[in-house]
Amino acid sequence: MNEYKDFNKQLIAEFRANGGKITSGQFAGAPLILLTTVGAKSGQPHTSPVAYIPDGDRILIVASKAGAPTHPDWYHNLVANPRVTVELGSERFEAQATVPQGEERDRLFNHIVSQMSGFGEYQKNTTRIIPVVVLERIK
């Protein structure tokens, strides 16, 4: 697990140093945001790099955890505390997270897969329904 945390720390540092751009490794050029959630148990802030799709004024993210059998920690955190901080490029803002269900989730997931097919592969690799999260900027 330390390897994963170290990798994320390096990705976060590069993101912040380059105004939101990742120039090396598997995420080079990928559309990423930094998502800061408040820990469901700890109450402490946690920042995670997450791929995103713009959807009008909203941001769509996927709690895929690369098709693992469990949801990522950041997902549990935002369900418990849906007010999050988003870093998009060099901009930082507060957002409200919601988790659509049923047909709305399916519609959004299919929209995301049409642009990032890897999420469809992740869904095939797990029995859980991978959640879609909608982030809306708090004005």
Give me the CATH fold name.
Pnp Oxidase, Chain A
The oligomerization state is single chain
Radius of gyration: 14 Å
> What is the CATH superfamily?
Electron Transport, Fmn-binding Protein, Chain A
Unreliable parts: none
Lateral strand order in the biggest sheet = 1-2-3-6-5-4
What CATH architecture do you see?
Roll
Helix content: 25-40%
Q: Beta-sheet strand percentage?
A: 25-35%
End-to-end separation in angstroms reads: 36 Å
Broad CATH class: Mainly Beta
How many domains, as an integer?
1
> How many DSSP helices?
4
Q: Provide the residue-averaged pLDDT.
A: 94
The major β-sheet equals: 6 strands, antiparallel, barrel
From the helix content, strand content and strand pairing, which structural class follows? alpha+beta
Run of helices and strands: HEEEHEEHHE
Shape call: globular
Protein model, in words:
- The chain is an alpha+beta fold and 139 residues long.
- The chain has a single domain, classed as Electron Transport, Fmn-binding Protein, Chain A (Pnp Oxidase, Chain A, Roll), CATH 2.30.110.
- The protein has four helices and six strands; from the N terminus they run H-E-E-E-H-E-E-H-H-E.
- It has helices at 2-17, 73-80, 102-115, 118-124, and strands at residues 32-38, 45-55, 58-62, 83-88, 91-98, 132-137.
- It has a six-stranded antiparallel beta barrel with strand order 1-2-3-6-5-4.
- A hairpin with a 2-residue loop joins strand 4 and strand 5 (91-98).
- The radius of gyration is 14 Å and the shape is globular.
- The model has no long low-confidence stretch (mean pLDDT 94).
- It catalyses: oxidized coenzyme F420-(gamma-L-Glu)(n) + a quinol + H(+) = reduced coenzyme F420-(gamma-L-Glu)(n) + a quinone.
- It comes from Dictyobacter alpinus.
- Belongs to the F420H(2)-dependent quinone reductase family.
